[in-house]
Specification:
With about 140 residues, the chain is an alpha+beta fold. It is built from three helices and seven strands, in the order E-H-E-E-E-H-E-H-E-E. A seven-stranded mixed sheet has the order 1-2-3-4-5-7-6, sandwiched between helices.
């Protein structure tokens, strides 16, 4: 298993297949994609899990976290998510957040994320903003 930075073109097919298989590939793009840092987890040279990170000052958002269905429930996504949390902590990020499907909130809580009061609906899915605030770095 290897985790490394990848291109947006490498991750779009996985985003689409996992998240919105009935939509065109452009539906899974986000406006900031060109400015994001995209990470992929590879098993035997096959890309199976992806996530995109967008850093804004001391805060970062991760978006479009997806693992191919046949590899879900095996811990690969958790390894990728922990990798980006460690990466962002090294960058002195003090808050990381995401728009989580409400059905996945308990998963993110395992990583120290908490739900906020912010919720919304998109394409019939209910979402909640979740965050993790890191201890202050430095003095």
């Amino acid at each position: 298993m290897i985790i490394k930075e990848v291109s947006i073109d490498q991750i779009l097919p996985i985003r689409q297949q996992v998240m919105w298989p009935d939509k065109p590939i452009d539906f899974v793009r986000v406006p900031e994609d060109e400015n994001g840092i995209h990470f992929g987890l590879f098993v035997e040279e096959n890309l199976i899990s992806v996530v995109s990170v967008f850093i804004h000052g001391q805060e970062a958002q991760f978006r479009k976290f997806a693992t191919l269905e046949q590899f879900q429930g095996k811990g690969y996504g958790s390894k990728l998510l922990q990798y980006i949390f460690d990466f962002l902590e090294e960058k002195n990020t003090n808050r990381i957040w995401c728009n989580a499907r409400i059905s996945k909130a308990a998963y993110y809580q395992k990583f120290g994320m908490t739900t906020t009061a912010a919720t919304f609906e998109k394409e019939g899915m209910e979402y909640v903003v979740m965050e993790r605030v890191f201890e202050m770095h430095g003095f």
